[in-house]
Amino acid sequence: MATLIDVLLPADQAEGTRSQVLRWLKAVGEPVRRHEPLVEIETDKVTVEVPAPADGILQEIAAAEGVDVAPGALLGRVVPGPAAATAVTGGAGAAPVAPGAAPAAAAGHRSSTDRMSPAVRRLLAEHGLDAGAVRATGAGGRITADDVLAAAAQRGAPAAATQSAAGESVRPDSGGDRRVPHTPMRRRIASHMVESLLHTAPHVTTMFEADMTAVLAHRALNKPEFDRRGVALTLTAYFVASCVDAIRAVPEANGRWTDDAIVLHDRVDIGVGTALEGRGLVVPVIRDVVRLDLFGIASTLGELVARAREDRLTFADLQGGTFTISNHGVSGSLLAAPIVINQPQSAILGIGRLEKCVVVVEREGRDEIAIRPRCYVTLTIDHRVLDGHQANRFMTVLVERLEGWN
Questions:
Q1: Residue 232: pLDDT above 80?
Q2: Which domains does the chain have, with CATH numbers?
Q3: Catalytic: 387?
């Protein structure tokens, strides 16, 4: 009898990440092809597909759908065999594909279903939509989550009984309310937030105002060149860059608490909170920000956000952040406090909505009324790591950098 090959959950997950088996894409006894998506795993951070380790037959499912699994856990077993390669859609001539990608279809063409991410497939099921009825706007004709939501909005409200992301029926109760079962991602987010706020770190928030006149002037001057190079110059990029100066002034903001010491990180790896419509929040990380100029920051940020919305992030994209930014103002919020710290980090920056405000300014020794674009910025700290004067110093440097941008 052939030696069985284990299907394992990747061990390179971020610290504290928990995972759940969302859906098996093959049944026991079905043929599989090496690198073909075999099982979907959902965490509080990202949904990924674990590929088959070899051509063969799925012999055993060791972790059923809905079961929590740890990094490196056994998910199932495959009995290897070359005969299975011709039994899979696409035939013997189908070329192997990269891990996590869908297999190619016959004649070199891939159907829209082959190319859909797990989140997109779930949203299609939720709204009772066929992939062929959805206008794809993603790279290479890929259907994105936003495409599905747009199609659902055009069609109108879903039927009374729909399928939730967790695979459970959602029906109106006798009072007309609807019960929407928690997805594994929502459960993990809730657990992480409660643990951070109530059981781990004493949260304290300081608030400043930032005049964005200089930043907006710089953006207006440079945006055409960024656009020409295919990169969106967002205001978030300016805040990421300004955090580098603030962290240099207050390195504790880029640190973490341990039982015997405060660890100050050498690298500045900044995570940016990204909302996924109908699914939750992820925090992809911009690596080694100190080494990037504004263009590099904007380019990396744009790529990460695009991959997040198309559900193409990997575990590596979400690991190892040392500081986090939450730009809640993009959805209309003026102020949010406290923003829960992304453990095990020690601080998180919040950015409110940009508004034109009437302010008093001094000009040639006289007070005058002026209209300026301003926003609230907050820093929520782990009070075990930073004191109030350090938080205020961080914010002073941040605001000075923004207001003096040139």
A1: yes
A2: 5-110 (2.40.50.100), 201-403 (3.30.559.10)
A3: yes
